[in-house]
Amino acid sequence: MTVLFSFLKKYRVAAFLALGMMLVELALELLQPFLISKIIDDGVTQKDISTVLLWGGILTGGTIIAFFAGIFGSFYAAHASQGLGYDLREAVYNKVQSFSYALFNRFSSSSLITRLTNDITQLQDMVFMGLRFMLRMPLLVVGSSVMALLVNVKLGLLLVVGIPILLFFVIIIMRKASGLFQQVQRRLDTVNSVMQENLTGMRLIRVFVRKNHERQRFEERSSNLMQGTVSALRLTETTMPFILLITNASIIAVLWYGHLDIIVGQASVGEVVAIINYAMRTMGALSAFSMIVASFSRAKASAERIQEVMFTVEDERPLDNQDQYVAGSSSVSASQSSDVYEVGVAFRQVSFHYPGTEAQVLKNIDFTARAGVTTAIMGSTGSGKSSLVQLILRLYDSDQGEIDVLDRRIQELDDHQLRGLIGYVPQEIVLFTGSIRENIAWGYEHATLEEIQEAARIAQIHDTIMNLPHGYDTLLGQRGVNLSGGQKQRISIARALVRRPAILLLDDSTSALDVRTESLLLDALRELSCTTLLITQKISSTIRADQVLLLSDGQLIAQGDHTHLLATSELYQQIYASQFGKEELEHVESVN
Amino acid sequence: MWKALTDPLRYPKPAVMTEAIANKSAKVEPVPSKKRRAKDWKGTLARIWGYLAERKLKLMLVLFMVLLTSALTLLGPYLIGIAIDDFLARDAGQMWVWFLVGLAVVYILNSVTSWLQNIWMIEIAQETVYRMRVDLFSHLHQLPIPFFGKRQQGELMSRVTNDIENVSSTLNSSAIQIFSSVLTLIGTLVVMLWLSPLLTLITFLVVPLMALGMRWITKRTGPLYRERQKNLGDLNGYIEETLSGEKIIKAFAQEQRVIGEFGERNDRIRLSGFWAQTISGFIPKLMNGLNNLSFGLIAGVGGILAIKGMITVGVIVIFVEYARQFTRPLNDLANQWNTLLSAIAGAERVFEILDESVEAEDEQHAVHVDHIEGAVVFDDVSFAYDTGDGDNTLQHISFTAEPGEMIALVGPTGAGKTTLIQLISRFYNADQGKITIDGRDIQSIKRESLRSHTAFVLQDSFLFEGTVMDNIRYGRLDATDAEVQDAARLANAHSFIERLPEGYNHRLNRDGGGISQGQRQLINIARALLADPSILVLDEATSSIDTVTEIKIQEGLQRLMEGRTSFVIAHRLNTIRAADQILVLRDGQILEKGSHDQLLDTGGFYSDLFYSQLHSSDARQA
């Protein structure tokens, strides 16, 4: 809950005002039974109409004041709670965005989504209720007790004596319930994750006709959620009858002893009536109690889940320069030409394993790509090609060795500067909801339409886009479904190019392109002066590269240009044969 | 300080609210949308009721308990009134003791019945929510595939979670509150009239004011709640999308940008949330205020009446208590009405999805087939996506695939290859022409039956959270471990799986858990092979796999696919040399058709493509 209070601080003025307004209302409300007993004892019993009118008038005036206090309180309470929700969402989202990629992957996205929406909403609602109802309840209880004691000490005590028992009971319930609600939220996560998985994999599920299988899985998890919720709520619901019993017992006691006292003249009828009135008010206030216990326990559970994200600390990164994280610095160095540099990308004895696993994905990788040259990376499935590229982006940090980018150690640059220099096209295509133009401009916010079109032209997608009904303003649906795989690939290439990167990383980004389009693209890329690293499976791509790195099992087993590798590397020959047939290979060999 | 004081009073008014107010002034012409909306509410409520009613017996029990509770709740203050008038100031001896015992019994019963009603209602409510959730989930599985192209995934998710949660929390308490409020209201009214018609009338003076106030408030809160849920859905969609694309965001260093865009959505939700909460917060204040007003009136007028000897002090006490009891259910109703509005806003969004029409029902005469030979015929098939631009994606496609043949689809990106195979899976129906399998129109075969005899490896490889074993077994749920491993061997996935930290029990997560894209494809292929289909479709299933492995897979496939039909989309022409037929597609039309050798002999588009691949190597060497 600490996180809650630290965020609430900002809204303390509004919160206190809301509370203040509530106190005004409460005070006036507490006076009522007292005023009524005045009307009975001083007015009715004395047969004095003017006294009745006086107190009646005060009662009415107070009501109007309380009403307006309530209306203003509503504004302040809503401001505090909505503001808090806003700030929390922002803070958690910012925090998530500040995670390193490795750390980010520790949380499942469905769980992060639940935390950002559902959990924060729980907290927000609790704060609103707290400022409006919840605090009112204990205050009303305390106030009623005090007033009851003032009216008649002995009878009042009968009312007060039950309260510690109630408190004790409630605290125990709350403790247990909060644990149960935490479980509920976790189960909500699992429901959400099945949902998310199903939405993403809908096509696959359809073609395998696994609807019932999935439904079963979903039912199982939903039913767990249901049972969890029921048992948590059932627990908080037990507070209610208990409270009723205790307060009702004190009412009976008040009647019994009040009766005795009236007989001996130690109490008046008005006093007994007032105390019973206070007892009933206490009960009325407490009637909302099970709801409050539920929402408080729930909020506590949610607060802990939010804290889990907020308090996650980044593992220390080697030689880090992260603190100079400056907003918007990405565009500053984005258009540097690589002519000035000597080294484009260099790896020296780099080894790497993914966090949380043991197997080394890259072992002692050592190569240099001069600035401006094109390097193709080839290797069997799972040989570490993508991992190598991701190290350049510092999506992960290497275990050993040094990586240089444009004559500098990558650790010397902060993430923003480093990534500002790079255009990256991932293997898995990710496009965002919005127009094609927005998606390409995503690479560089301030890109003009000309720049966007230029990038699209290089990526060989301009003509296709122009043929679409709305050209560059054509909207892409969720994950850009209305385009073919190859078209999406080229848009994501254009997105990288619009940054005018000094280094271009293409992770198997031409796999869905036909040979023609691919060769046009590669030729166009050669025109650019950037250092290009190109992961590919196709010999047709490696032929055009200045050098080829051949990876196998995380090791760099051969490097050189196409001709060199074809002459010397057995693996490369195998790959060649797989694409052009054995005859072709023999032909080539005989030529050599 | 001043700013902090006045800021909360300065929120701009959201458009939905001003519109709602404007509607009122434009009274002359009744706004049709408003009418429809009101009807929708009723419809939505009726549907929620429909869910609740499925547990009739329990619901009856709850109703009965509510009835008892309400009666007992009324009885309590009445008995206290009697106590004050008849016993308190008098020595009634034994009677008094019995009276108190009676009171105690009433109180205990009251505790028990109210507990039972709540417990049971919670169960009903949660079961209802559970069923709504499952219904929504099942319904999503029946929606046509194009539906998902148009929706943001996170926004859909928000409906299953946030909107349903909203319904859930309301049902837990509100349903009971509403019943008991109405009952208590009626009961109190009867007793009050019986005790003193005049005081009852005074108590009633405030009711029109209440009605007016409520009208003013709900007119605004209804649209605001709807807006809030919509904004929440948008936000959810945005979060989902950006978290899925986190790698790109990081790689492009666009964190600040998404934070900014997130902020805009966050802002919208704060605005609608603020007004919904503020205005709905007026309700209890209004009720309380009017409540207290009637309180004062009763005390004043009652006092005068008592002085005149027309009523007793006891009646005043009872009335004060009843006036509270009378307004409390009204107050509760008002409060519940409000949460109800927010729940309705949620439920509406759930039902909106449930009302989406499902994938066209299988034709009436559609049959279940036990076995498929695999003869696939396209007869003059044309098809266009429903994008409204009128461009046909496929035009007059005709070909015949004999059982056991391997058909390769080749062509530039966007030529319609994936679209063609999606027609075989019946994600879409052909607009024109006919597709037959074993001579039977595929529209006369039940979708599920058709799909269970075909296996697809889709372009986007997809893995579920779970072990490698589970993921492959997805192809055939009753497969043994050994069969799974065989399929993996055939897909050339076995060796890399063996090397994973926990082998086949290695858990895959969102990021693949150290699995490369190519390896994901291998697992996807293994999954399809395990399904043991009559027709196998590979849509660029090996695009991320190195060509050496690819050839090995092809060899394995050829053995496996003897006597079965397969469709392969590929860009690396070498891998499809062995195909019985190659269909060359361009701009949605079949340009050429024939075997590799035939097509090379003809010297058309295909041979150009093929030689350009070869030449690309020769060119550089020369």
UniProtKB/TrEMBL annotation, chain A:
CDD domains: ABC_6TM_Tm287_like. Residues 16-298 form the ABC transmembrane type-1 domain. This is Lipid A export ATP-binding/permease protein MsbA. It comes from Paenibacillus nuruki. It comes from the Bacteria. Keywords: ATP-binding, Cell membrane, Membrane, Nucleotide-binding, Transmembrane, Transmembrane helix, Transport. One of its GO terms (cellular component) is plasma membrane. It is found in: Cell membrane. It holds the Pfam family ABC_tran. The chain crosses the membrane at residues 12-32, 52-78, 133-151, 157-177, 242-260, 272-296. It is a multi-pass membrane protein. Residues 345-578 form the ABC transporter domain. The lineage of its organism: Bacteria, Bacillati, Bacillota, Bacilli, Bacillales. One of its GO terms (molecular function) is ATP hydrolysis activity.
Automatic annotation (TrEMBL), chain B:
GO terms for cellular component: plasma membrane. Residues 61-342 form the ABC transmembrane type-1 domain. Its main location: membrane. PROSITE patterns: ABC_TM1F, ABC_TRANSPORTER_1, ABC_TRANSPORTER_2. It is a multi-pass membrane protein. Pfam families: ABC_membrane (PF00664), ABC_tran (PF00005). It is found in: Cell membrane. Keywords: ATP-binding, Cell membrane, Membrane, Nucleotide-binding, Transmembrane, Transmembrane helix, Transport. CDD domains: ABC_6TM_Tm288_like. It comes from the Bacteria. Residues 376-612 form the ABC transporter domain. The chain crosses the membrane at residues 59-84, 96-116, 175-195, 201-218, 295-320. GO terms for molecular function: ABC-type oligopeptide transporter activity; ATP binding; ATP hydrolysis activity. SUPFAM superfamilies: ABC transporter transmembrane region (SSF90123), P-loop containing nucleoside triphosphate hydrolases (SSF52540). This is Putative ABC transporter ATP-binding protein YfiC. It comes from Paenibacillus nuruki. The lineage of its organism: Bacteria, Bacillati, Bacillota, Bacilli, Bacillales.
